[in-house]
Structures are given as structure tokens and as C-alpha cells.
């Protein structure tokens, strides 16, 4: 069975939009895309060399080459888009028929899987994480219905921070080889001592991996993410993707970050985040009123407080914002705390000690 057998037939039959840039590329005289022939007004001197009056490459070759080198995969297996959110949406639209097919997820987990399914009219099958917030492969596989076309696994998981081992991912992917696509969201993997599931791609054509430059690479505002999958899946998603997903300044920012100097700086920053994560886990666990600090392989900690509402209010009143994740299943009383600079993290601890613990 081919992975293409899982795709909606009408998507396979779709005649995709053919953009002017994809058809003809660049030339000295560009008269094929109804663009303005001059730069936009108000352009600053430092950006005059950026062709903002021209549509960007739909899938920038140089950026894909650098991502392929970074992730050690074939460039043909990469689809770049606006963060990994866009890839999630495209996958659900390509593989799930409205009112017929479903996705599977293990809450508490990233909320966009469910949002994209609801937008598409696809059902949602939920197989909760185990008591320790880990994936139970047997329970997940036993809980799937035949209608499931995509299984989303988040590793490290957002918002709990737990990871999924390669053996578990491979077991699930192999079991679903003729039934469903398995998508592993690795948005936070740079902060984990964990190999990427991309090493399993050659053996499992129903596997896909989501990666992003938003977290470790400090490019959340640029919105650059990608799906790594079989070239056939990438080709299908390009059929339904908007013609020009990536703004030119975003691509240039990503290219600058993915230089040798940028990679070296990012590696050092990741080490700082990991060190601060471990420090914060120890310091928070010592505080009265802190009931639990979940183990985390991401750039955040999920912390349960005796009075999370009070803690949240006091932090906001003192200029510190964290994320209340109490609405997620089994996370009542939890706050998710991103790891900032050492100074920012110390400021949070100071507020907790001075305003909350002493109250």
C-alpha cells in the first residue's frame, strides 16, 4: 500500500494553481506576475536590495537546502511554510474527508491539532496520556477507530514537556502502516536529549515530522516551519498550499540564522536554556505552594500550584506573564512557565518568594 492511498481522492485529482514565479523563476525583465516594477515607498536604505515588489519563491531552494543539511534529510522531503501550524492544517485538509475521517491525539497536547480537525469537519479521537503524562502505545493503538487518517504525536509534548522514545514511535508507525499517517511534532526537540524521528523515514512511508525555527532558533516572528515526509506527501500538500507562503524578509531572516555563525550561537543559547530549565525546576520545587514540577525536555516547565489563580494574578501584577494551562485535561492548577534569560527567570522566582510565598 502506498501512502498516497490515504490521501483524499479529490485532492489527488485536483489541478493545482500554477503561480507565475513557479512557472518562470527570475529574469532581467519580469513582466509575468502583475507586480509593480519599482520598490515600495518608504523603503529604508538597508532594505533596498530586498525585492519586496516581487513575489517570493514558493519553496525557496536555498532555504530548503540549509534545512535539509540541518535536519540531515533529502531536500525533496521538505515542505516549508508558515510555522508548523500551516503544515498541520494542510495535512488534515489533504488526508481527512469532512464528516468521514478523523485524527487521533493524546491530550493534554498542542491545541492546533484539534482546531485544524474541527475546521476541516474531521472527527477527533482522543486517547489520553498515561498517569505519568507519557504515551501508552498499546492504549493508543487499541483506542483508534478505522476512520483515523492521521495520528499526531508531540515530542517533547506541549504543554507537559515529556518525550516519546523512537521505539514507541516506530511501534505505532509500523502498526498503522496501511491505515494512517503518523505525524511527530518535534517543535521542541532541540532542547531534548532525544534523536529525531526523521531517522525512521526510510523505513516508514506513513511517517512525517514537523520542525520549526520558532523556538530554538528565535524566529517566532518570522513564522518558518516545515514538514519532513516522503516526497509524494510533500507533492500532495503543495497542490493545496497557497502560492506564496513565505514572505521574503522571513526567508532572509532564516537564512541569516542558519549560517555557521548563527548555528554556533544557537547551540550556545540552547545550552543556556537547558541549564536554566534545570535550575528553575530545582528552585520552583523548593517553594511552598508548589505541588509538582513535571519533568521537561522542552524550553518550559509545567508547574502545579496549590493556588494557581493567585500565583498567576501576582505574577501579572508584577510584570511577569506565564501561561495558565488549567483548561487542558488533567492540568487543573498548572501554569506553564517558559524559560527566559537568567535575569527573567530570577525575577519570576523573586515575585513568587516575595508576594506569593509570604502571603
UniProtKB/TrEMBL annotation:
GO terms for molecular function: histidinol-phosphate transaminase activity; pyridoxal phosphate binding. Its cofactor is pyridoxal 5'-phosphate. This is Histidinol-phosphate aminotransferase. It is an enzyme of class 2 (transferase). It holds the Pfam family Aminotran_1_2. Its EC number is 2.6.1.9. One of its GO terms (biological process) is L-histidine biosynthetic process. It comes from Dokdonella immobilis. The keyword Transferase applies. HAMAP family: HisC_aminotrans_2 (MF_01023). Residues 51-352 form the Aminotransferase class I/classII large domain. InterPro entries: Aminotrans_II_pyridoxalP_BS, Aminotransferase_I/II_large, HisP_aminotrans, PyrdxlP-dep_Trfase, PyrdxlP-dep_Trfase_major, PyrdxlP-dep_Trfase_small. The gene is hisC. Belongs to the class-II pyridoxal-phosphate-dependent aminotransferase family. Histidinol-phosphate aminotransferase subfamily. The modification N6-(pyridoxal phosphate)lysine is found at residue 215. Homodimer. It catalyses: L-histidinol phosphate + 2-oxoglutarate = 3-(imidazol-4-yl)-2-oxopropyl phosphate + L-glutamate.
Amino acid at each position: 500500500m502506498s501512502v498516497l492511498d490515504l490521501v483524499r481522492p479529490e485532492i489527488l485529482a485536483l489541478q493545482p494553481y500554477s503561480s507565475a514565479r513557479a512557472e518562470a523563476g527570475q529574469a532581467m525583465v519580469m513582466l509575468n506576475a502583475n507586480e509593480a516594477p519599482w520598490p515600495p515607498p518608504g523603503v529604508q536604505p538597508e532594505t533596498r536590495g530586498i525585492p519586496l515588489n516581487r513575489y517570493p519563491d514558493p519553496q525557496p531552494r536555498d532555504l530548503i537546502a540549509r534545512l535539509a543539511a540541518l535536519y540531515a534529510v533529502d531536500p525533496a522531503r521538505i515542505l516549508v511554510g508558515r510555522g508548523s501550524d500551516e503544515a498541520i492544517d494542510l495535512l488534515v485538509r489533504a488526508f481527512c474527508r469532512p464528516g468521514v475521517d478523523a485524527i487521533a491525539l493524546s491530550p493534554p497536547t498542542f491545541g492546533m491539532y484539534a482546531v485544524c480537525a474541527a475546521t476541516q469537519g474531521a472527527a477527533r479521537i482522543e486517547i489520553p496520556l498515561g498517569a505519568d503524562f507519557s504515551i501508552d502505545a498499546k492504549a493508543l493503538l487499541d483506542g483508534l477507530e478505522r476512520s483515523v487518517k492521521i495520528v499526531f504525536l508531540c515530542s517533547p509534548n506541549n504543554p507537559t514537556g515529556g518525550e516519546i522514545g523512537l521505539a514507541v514511535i516506530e511501534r505505532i508507525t509500523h502498526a498503522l502502516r496501511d491505515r494512517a499517517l503518523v505525524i511527530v511534532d518535534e517543535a521542541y526537540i532541540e532542547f531534548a536529549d532525544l534523536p529525531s524521528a526523521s531517522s525512521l523515514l526510510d523505513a516508514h512511508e506513513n511517517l512525517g515530522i514537523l520542525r520549526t525555527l520558532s523556538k530554538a532558533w528565535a524566529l517566532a516572528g518570522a513564522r518558518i516551519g516545515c514538514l519532513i515526509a516522503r516526497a509524494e506527501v510533500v507533492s500532495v500538500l503543495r497542490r493545496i498550499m497557497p502560492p506564496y507562503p513565505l514572505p521574503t524578509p522571513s526567508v532572509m531572516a532564516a537564512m541569516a540564522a542558519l549560517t555557521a555563525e548563527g548555528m554556533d550561537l544557537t547551540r550556545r543559547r540552547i545550552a543556556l536554556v537547558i541549564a536554566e530549565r534545570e535550575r528553575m525546576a530545582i528552585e520552583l520545587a523548593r517553594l511552598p505552594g508548589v505541588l509538582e514540577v513535571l519533568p521537561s525536555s522542552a524550553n518550559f516547565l509545567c508547574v502545579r500550584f496549590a493556588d494557581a489563580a493567585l500565583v498567576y494574578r501576582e505574577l501579572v501584577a508584577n510584570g511577569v506573564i506565564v501561561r495558565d494551562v488549567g483548561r487542558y485535561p488533567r492540568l487543573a492548577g498548572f501554569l506553564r512557565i517558559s524559560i527566559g534569560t537568567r535575569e527573567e527567570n530570577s525575577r519570576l522566582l523573586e515575585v513568587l518568594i516575595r508576594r506569593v510565598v509570604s502571603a
